[in-house]
Amino acid sequence: MLRLAGRFTRYEIAGESMLPTLRPGDWVIVDGRAWAHHEPREGEIVLARDPRQPERALVKRIRAREPAGDLWLLGDNARRSTDSRTLGAFPPEALLGRVRWRYWPPPGAAFPTLDERETAAEAP
Amino acid sequence: MHLLSTLLRPRRLAEAHCDGPCGIYDPASARIAAEAVLSMAQKIVALGDADDAATNNTRSRFTAIKEEQAEQAKRELNILWTDYFNPERTANHPDLWQTFWNAAKLCSRNKTELSVEAGEELLATIEEIHNVFWATKGRDDVPFYLAV
Hints:
The complex is a heterodimer.
Chain A: H1 2-7, E1 8-14, E2 27-31, E3 45-50, E4 53-65, E5 71-74, H2 84-87, E6 95-104, H3 114-122
Antiparallel strand pairs in A: 1-2, 2-6, 3-4, 3-6, 4-5
Chain B: H1 2-8, E1 12-15, H2 28-47, H3 53-84, H4 87-90, H5 96-112, H6 116-136
């Protein structure tokens, strides 16, 4: 149980670069030992150290693996994301874990659709 | 429910981060502000020592604009330095911090002093930054031009 407690960490999502997959305010569980048995794969949503500010954790999706093993990380919301397009490829050591589950809001909970969110954000 | 949410609430942030919604940077915005500073300094000098009410009014207005634009240039430079440049982009330009530092100091000097020379120096420093900026993008087709 203690081992599990060290493996999984709760994170709150901030920012919009992973919309529509992850919304700001979502609570997720990150698996710090996701790659004990396999290499990071394309399509996985990961937590990575910001190369400019190592204490900061970025959440992005692996979109490509370079031959040397470096990873090309992009936000799902390309228009609102700072990612490998400006930061370059991330070395595998920069990965902190893989986002495994969203535990809040619970599945099926009522939350505004994306369209509603945008309208709400634009209202004066 | 409150206890539950306290227990469940994450203590760490995962940033789905975006530096700016656009990612558009261009030293041109600092250059325009610096040109306005220089132009105002020249115009204030051209007013000479006349001390009539109309000239005093004009001098005050020009000075206000000069100071505001110097502040603006400093802000634009700071955005470039803190948002666009990063260790990777400065790797080939180890002295760039000093160029930005000089530029920021020149903005302050232009704000507090009346000096055409300080305005020209600021513009020249921004041209250096322009050259490095476009070099980091692999672009050699962007000329440094002036509005005047």
